Amino acid sequence: MKKMLGKTVCAFVAACLLSAPSVWAENIKVGALLAVTGPASFLGGPEARTLEMMVEQVNAKGGINGQKVELLVKDTAGNPEKAISFAKQLLEEDKVLAVLGPSSSGETMSIKKIFEDAKTPLISCAAAEVIVNPLASWVFKTPQNDSLAAIKIFMEMNKQGISKVAVLVDNSGFGKAGKEQLEKIAPEYKIEVVEAEVYDTKATDLSAVIAKIKANPAVQGVINWSIVPAQSIVVKNIRQAGWQVPIFQSHGFGNIKYVEAAGAAAEGVIFPAGRLLMADLLPDGHPQKALLMQYVKDYEGKYKETASTFGGHGYDAFMIFEKAVAIGGNDKEKVRTSIEGLKNLPGTGGVYNFSATDHNGLALDAFEMMTVKDGKFVPYTSK
Q1: Per-residue pLDDT reduced to its tens digit, 42-52
Q2: Same domain, 71 and 190
């Protein structure tokens, strides 16, 4: 009798376990490789804080498909070697469903093949187009492609009658990729790169580089393509040299802290950016406005700092992950396929339309031209 009762109880418990998977389901593990500290912390810090806030919000609503999300953040400090080590740890030890980040293009390129081999989705927060072109089956990214940023800059230069430019880039992966795109696309817009210089990301003074390009009387405009802290130094050194040449920056300039670092020298800098920096100026009914306004309100209310483009990259990475998991469940292959199927999805960077051949999903219309006026970002109007 006792044996029969024991078997009945065991069978009942087993049936309960099978009939209530949401109660007993494991957490959804997602990793994040971000430069929370170090010279690229202006990128990774806002991204990490954004992810933590979003996971908190999602879990407060019951998680995704009834499963709570467990976020595992690894601080790479912007170092590709650390990114490689932490990537392997997240994949082999933590068994994550996907990874968000890294913050920089160089880090992302150092781990791209690792995620291809592991058949695990990677949604990068870095901008270089080489991250997704050539296509990698398991690698996606949220920032707009650098080729589109170059096109927006050249279109504005055409309006201003600028035809000869100097290109300055840092020696990061982002800088290298940007230089290639700028030199490749310039001829299509009848623009000639008459000076091209590469400098160290750790440089604290670039006066010599500025003096060299300033000595070329043909230069009508300067394009700087870099990450912190160099982009602020370039601007300061140009103005300190008494050179009032138009300065264009890449879409990596979208953090007000860069403006603060450059001070008055940042006034008038022109750059392409997503609409996060002008959310309150968007017309009611714009597909991005409600989302952008809510993100800015939530982030600035929680962290008491200005929301940046880079935090937005983190927002979009998690949003894409969340949507894909809601469709595909806790399954890597289905999540990957689900990302490729996401259409007309508003994010902070634009409206995403992914496909099997497009793992960025953004077009030229994701950008607006911005400038700095009175220490603030404002929409740019051609003169």
Answers
A1: 999 999 999 99
A2: no
Identify the domain containing residue 311 by its residue range.
23-144+287-352
Render pLDDT for 326-350 as a digit per residue (tens, 0 to 9): 999 999 999 999 999 999 999 999 9
Whichever domain contains 241, its CATH number is 3.40.50.2300
DSSP state of 67: B
Cβ 50 vs Cβ 349: under 8 Å: no
Overall domain count for the chain: 2
Phi/psi-derived region of residue 63, left when phi > 0, alpha when psi is between -120 and 50, beta in every other case? left
The answer to whether position 281 is within a domain reads no
Q: Which residues, in sequence order, are CB contacts of 26 under 8 Å at separation 6+?
A: 67, 330
What is this structure's pTM? 0.90
pLDDT at 11: 47
The answer to whether residue 7 sits within a structural domain is: no
Q: Peptide bond preceding 379: is omega within 30 degrees of 0, i.e. cis? A: no
In 90-220 the beta strands, taken as DSSP E runs, fall at 98-100, 122-124, 139-141, 164-170, 192-199
Q: What pLDDT is recorded for position 25?
A: 56
Are 248 and 301 contained in the same domain?
Answer: no
pLDDT digits (tens, 9 = 90+) for 32-71: 999 999 989 999 999 999 999 999 999 999 999 999 999 9
Q: Are residues 229 and 314 in the same domain?
A: no
Angle at 321 (CA atoms; ends 95, 111), nearest 5 degrees: 55
Angle at alpha carbon of residue 133, lines to 132 and 134, rounded to 5°:
110
| Residues 118 and 222 grouped into a single domain | no
Q: Which pair of structure tokens corresponds to residue 364?
A: 């030229």
